[in-house]
Amino acid sequence: MAYQIAIVGGSITGCMLAQLLKRNPQVHVSLFERSSSVLGSRGVGITLPLPIIEKVNNLLPDNPCSFYPAHKRFFYRNEVQQNDAIEIWQQTISAAAINWGMLYRTLRHDLDGIYHTDTEVLHIDHGTDKLPSIALAHGSKKTFDLVVCADGYDSLGRKTLYPDYSFNYAGYIGWRGTLALPKPPTVTSLEYHCFDKGHLVSYTIPHQNGALINWVLYSHMSHEDLALFKQMQKSSKQLNKDATEQLFSIADHHLSKEMKGIVRRSSSLFYQTIYDGIAPSVSKDRVVLLGDAAKILRPHLGSGAAEGIRQAFELADTISKTPDLASAISTWTSAEDPQSQHMAKLASHVGNALVTQAPDWSQMNQERMTNWWGSLMMGKLQYFTAPSLTENRMAWQK
Ligand SMILES: Cc1cc2nc3c(=O)[nH]c(=O)nc-3n(C[C@H](O)[C@H](O)[C@H](O)COP(=O)(O)OP(=O)(O)OC[C@H]3O[C@@H](n4cnc5c(N)ncnc54)[C@H](O)[C@@H]3O)c2cc1C
After folding, report:
1. If you count DSSP H runs as helices and E runs as strands, how many of each does the chain have, helices first?
2. Residue 149 within any structural domain of the chain
């Protein structure tokens, strides 16, 4: 008889796993998503390592996700007085610039009969000596051989398995926006505009028939200021008039003429609070935590969605190759826990170095930046430049 597997949460990570498990004849998979609307309009740009998006598109060739390859990234120090940006570093990378909504639509495609919208999971029983079960908002209760929680940063699964655990505020926020580009490019690069306790990163992503410049400006904000800021925003993520003025003032103080023009002309301005943290383990009994449910990474290594996708591939692969489900979970957990912990540590380390403890950019040049980045990466492969998932894992485990 096929294993009955439930997935809680139907965003990037949940859909990726559903696509993989539905191809395994030993598995019957059901996905429960609380949202009733199509999620495809959510989010803006993300970057993924090129091998990851290629792997996704090879699996789903009928509905591939568009992306712009990025082979270089450039760091600039902004000379605000001269309204100029001076290049201090360029680095070869292997990344894909993606529209979140397009990636979601690729992963969501052809999950009819598996993906249940408007179906919130209210309770999870992780079943220490029995099979796990979930209670749905509609009133039914269902038992499964395995429950995978891909239910994001506020995960019910994580709260159920590890109730004493919470994520930490990283000390800065990301201000975000997009600007329509009339003429789509074929490639893009990542551009970093660095200033004291912050930077702005921008790249171009596909959008409908055109393209968007997607940017995130990271800037330091104390705990106290964050509390006041949230009060001012009245729990909306879209920037109100005062918050928009605050963003424009940061841009005016720190960015070159061209970049501040892009920020001022952008639409859909919103902010994301940057957190980090990792659950003690990715599984307990017959419940697994995947993607943001298991760990929140600072977004400087293009890693949250990439990690969810990587984990989904590795979990599905372990299930297909292991004779029984309990051994599969245990094998996958033993490999995944150290890898996830390493990634979380690295992302926090890089976040501090790029924002709260950034170096004096005015002293940096190509050679110093190369050395600085090398020591920051703690001797490991840079995520963007790692040639394949397998080599990634091997490099991290060294
Ligand atoms: C500023 C910023 C920039 C980023 N840039 C990048 C980047 O460049 N590259 C990258 O890889 N990542 C990036 N990320 C991270 C990335 O966006 C997330 O890691 C990723 O989208 C998480 O996907 P997920 O599917 O695990 O969780 P989510 O997208 O949070 O999805 C969880 C889903 O579960 C559903 N759900 C929750 N609870 C329940 C319930 N009880 N019952 C049913 N359904 C439920 C929700 O409705 C949702 O659909 C960035 C993040 C930030 C903040």
Report:
1. 11, 18
2. yes
